[in-house]
Amino acid sequence: MNARKNKLVALAALGLTGALALSACGGGSPSADGGSDAGGAQPGAASGQLAGAGASSAESAQGAWTQNFIALNPEAQVTYDSVGSSAGREQFLAGGVQFAGSDAALTEDELAQSAEACQGGTAFDLPVYISPIAVVFNLEGVEDLQLSAPTIAGIFAGTITTWNDPAIVADNPEATLPDLAITPVHRSDGSGTTENFTSYLSETAGDVWTHGEVDEWPIEGGQSGDGTSGLVSVVEGGNGTIGYADASKAGNLGIAKVKVGEEYIEYSPEAAAKAVELSPRAEGRSEHDIVMELDRTIDDPGAYPIVLVSYLVLCDTYADQETADLVKAYAGYVVSPEGQEASAQAAGSAPLTEGLSTDATAAIESIKAAA
Amino acid sequence: MSTTTTSKPTHSELLTGSATAENRLPGWHMLLTALAAVLLAVLVLALFGSVSIGGVLVLGYGLHLVIGYLYSRVREGRRWAADRLVTMLVYGAFAVAMIPLISLLWEVLHRGIVRIIGPIPLQFWTMDMAGVIGGMDTGGISHAIVGTLLITLGASLISVPIGLFTSIFLVEYARYGALKVLGRGVTFLVDVMTGIPSIVAGLFGLALFITITNDPGIRIGLMGSVALSVLMIPTVVRSSEEMLRLVPMELREAAYGLGVPKWLTIVRVVLRTAIAGLTTSVTLAVARVIGETAPLLLTVGALPLMNANLFEGRMQTLPTFINSQYRSGNAVCNSDVMTNPITQIDYACSTTINYDRAWAAALTLILIVMLLNVIARLVSYYFSPKLGR
Amino acid sequence: MSTSAAATPTPQKQSDPPETKARTAKRPGDLIFSGLSIGSGLLIFLTLLLVAVFLTIRSLPAIQSSREVTGDADAVSLLEYTAPLVFGTVFAAVLALLMAVPVAVGIALFISHFAPRRLATPLGFMIDLLAAVPSVVFGLWGGVWLVPRLEPLYMWLNTYLGWIPLFAGEPSAPMRNLATASVVLAVMILPIITAVSREVFLQTPRLQEEAALALGATRFETIRTVVLPFGRSGVVSASMLGLGRALGETMAVLMVLSPGSSFSLHILEVGRHNSIAANIASQSAEATPDVMARLIFTGLVLFVITFVINAIARAVVARSTQG
């Protein structure tokens, strides 16, 4: 068996060298400025193999980006494994993948650790995927529902238990609400969606929602579903259910309007993008490390505050010029208007605003190869 | 379903002649009691005001267990009544198992067939997912079919020899002294191995290859095969061991008596006799691993294109494909028409396309396993020695 | 048809009759063959060792930083974290086994001894089909089809049999509770137990059966006195295979159960239980290294559980073959 294993390893090694040789041959075409003008918009500019891993929330978007990028650059192959944010960051920091997708920006520790994977340089985050989170519900006879932050917090914290509770009636003076128990549904897996949703609850209604910002649901018991699609199917399967999900996956469920300032507003990609734009950048980060400090309490009626931002994590230094060029081309495509349009079409995300897009492009420009 | 009746006497009954020797009643008596039980069930349910087909069947079956038993007890005696009762229970067990089977197959069939026969028949099996994004009403699984077959084949090539030799060791060699002790240890470890959660097997495959190649990003088909074989080996060992033990000792002794070497005895007599059972165990083992999702998620990654090389690059497989399509949930349709960026062909947009693909891929997976089953059965039919029943 | 039963009568099962003395004259073929066999056995040993070592190393950080080891009240208690998961895992698997084994033995007997011969093979084939269904599909089926259909049954059990602790509590729709998860698990392990049991029942020495029938035994008596004793170890072994699968099953539980973390006996209540494997699968995606180590520790515990359960099963088999 030992002999066989050795043989397999040899074969595997052979395959790997083959891959390396292939990518080495394919490289070389100069595409240093691929990032500046609308990414890899010039067809066939980039080549080689690139692997990424990370958040499953951005899977559809990453699928659209990689597929479109390959279409524009037939010589290149880019893959994305949706293994989850943490696993993606871990693989990235271990040098296993060249880029990561993550629902949370790198922590200080992780930035310090990144020197190894980044050839002595450092890693940085780019917001690339902005997605509104909808409060979805399934209640017979009720199609429109308006909710204020404290009411949502009360429902999910378990203090509001029936649909005709005075708090809900106050939010919906015109609707006829049944005397039915509310079944709040949460995500059973740890997720960026839960983290952003609870962040919204604790910042806007901290006195009702006392569990803080967490990525794993903090309350014992209750209905839950695994993944966005699991949650949506549970909400669909019951009557009087309410949950939170990536807005593009809401399907036929009712979507509540959320009170911002004095108005109840409906989610829309534009409103989500606006909320991100109005939010300040996190402080104490390097120039190119673009991390948003989302402000959930904004009262601009054009902004929808329950929003998830997913980051693309990149190195500022890659081992060789080919990889650096390919990463620049790919990341450049992702933040370009074309790339953002592709993800909006495929995943219903909100396009990056111009300001963010410019900053991100500048950051991508700074990527270089190790001397 | 609840009308459980003994059909015409099977030949075993004829053999004993018991049907006439004792006071046995023809099968239609059971039909009568069944009818009575169903009627009673309808009456009882009508009293409670909740008549439904399911309720009648369940209650009717339960009542028939009592009525049929008592009737038979009075007319045929205790022993035959017990026989009737067990017969009814056994038929009932079978009927109960048919419920999930039929409903599940029906769900998979009627949801999955849509995608396979339409929009272009069988295109789902010949296309891959290159350039297919969002709610694009197209796409296929040729790459996933190839990936699943190759990875499972790889896993079988690793685990069937190891598993078979281990079971031969356990049955034929671990009989005396040190080997017997070792055999006990191995049996125990195989038992423990059956309990390895699939996700742990995946972690093991991942860690093993990262350690060997020193490349944390390595994702190749072979890793999946190794991870799956960790799950497959114990299944193969356990069930083949059981099959080998059933080969009568006299067969071996006869071979030894003729001066046949031990290894030839094993190959020509023991394995030959047990071939049908062994094929079943291998098929079951394949069936167990072919639908495994978790280890493959960790070890082979995902790829929308065809990759038929086990030793290089990510691969798509049917279970991971089903999983990722299901998890993608409802697709987004911002416009009615979507263009494949690679082929530049326009497609309609469908919000349920991900679920449709998941069901169609599930149907495909089941069809593949069915096919494997048929092949295994043909093999065992043609190669097993023709004796016994 | 598909079986290869022994034509010769075996007075007793293969209860280790004294084998012709182990051959001293070593032929090269024998040497190679025995070498391969023993080597495979050792390889199993090695694989398992590797898995166990790997699991232990990976879970060490969680053990070292746990409350039990550090004595720090703020640290996460591994015991408090793992115990409810262990409870849920074993509970669900045992319930599944209790439901599946009688049915599986019934089906196996149906196919081997009751069904018309012409139907037996296709029926067995149909049951094998269930084994082929990927667990993701069982999850889909369980979540979409089964959950709403079990609701009336659960409400009935809760209303009329609520005095039994198992059915007490307050079930709420959708019924994504431990009971549903166990039903799905039972369906999943049914084909494995059935297939192995059926194969063993079919191997029952023909002459013994016919002898019993000739003595005037009913079919049930024949089964009780000849078939079941002959197949007992096979059934136990098959059940162990099923239990192993039920304990480690990930996707189906994940997609059917609304998890929680408690020692509740109320299987109809939602959000009370979870299984180790499903917990690993749902939490590993967004796990930090600390959490991952803790999850791997729970995997190690699952490993140990199967170890213990198998030891018990082994003892049962040993006693039954002696008696």
Automatic annotation (TrEMBL), chain A:
One of its GO terms (biological process) is phosphate ion transmembrane transport. One of its GO terms (cellular component) is ATP-binding cassette (ABC) transporter complex. Residues 1-24 form the signal peptide. It comes from the Bacteria. Residues 41-338 form the PBP domain. CDD domains: PBP2_PstS (cd13565). One of its GO terms (molecular function) is phosphate ion binding. Residues 43-53 have a biased composition (Low complexity). Keywords: Phosphate transport, Signal, Transport. The keyword Glycosyltransferase does not apply. InterPro entries: ABC_phos-bd_PstS, PBP_domain, Phosphate-bind_PstS. Residues 31-53 are annotated as: Disordered. Belongs to the PstS family. This is Phosphate-binding protein. It comes from Brachybacterium phenoliresistens.
TrEMBL record, chain B:
The chain crosses the membrane at residues 28-47, 53-72, 84-106, 144-174, 186-212, 218-237, 358-383. Part of the binding-protein-dependent transport system for phosphate; probably responsible for the translocation of the substrate across the membrane. It comes from Brachybacterium phenoliresistens. This is Phosphate transport system permease protein PstA. GO terms for cellular component: plasma membrane. NCBIfam families: 3a0107s02c (TIGR00974). Residues 145-376 form the ABC transmembrane type-1 domain. It is found in: Cell membrane. Its main location: membrane.
Automatic annotation (TrEMBL), chain C:
It is found in: Cell membrane. It is a multi-pass membrane protein. Residues 86-313 form the ABC transmembrane type-1 domain. Keywords: Cell membrane, Membrane, Phosphate transport, Transmembrane, Transmembrane helix, Transport. Residues 1-24 are annotated as: Disordered. The keyword Cell membrane applies. Residues 1-15 have a biased composition (Polar residues). Its main location: membrane. Pfam families: BPD_transp_1 (PF00528). GO terms for molecular function: phosphate transmembrane transporter activity. InterPro entries: MetI-like, MetI-like_sf, Phosphate_PstC, Phosphate_Transport_Permease. GO terms for cellular component: plasma membrane. The keyword Transmembrane helix applies. The chain crosses the membrane at residues 31-57, 85-111, 123-147, 178-197, 295-317. Belongs to the binding-protein-dependent transport system permease family. CysTW subfamily. PANTHER family: PHOSPHATE TRANSPORT SYSTEM PERMEASE PROTEIN PST (PTHR30425), PHOSPHATE TRANSPORT SYSTEM PERMEASE PROTEIN PSTC (PTHR30425:SF1). Part of the binding-protein-dependent transport system for phosphate; probably responsible for the translocation of the substrate across the membrane. This is Phosphate transport system permease protein. It comes from Brachybacterium phenoliresistens.
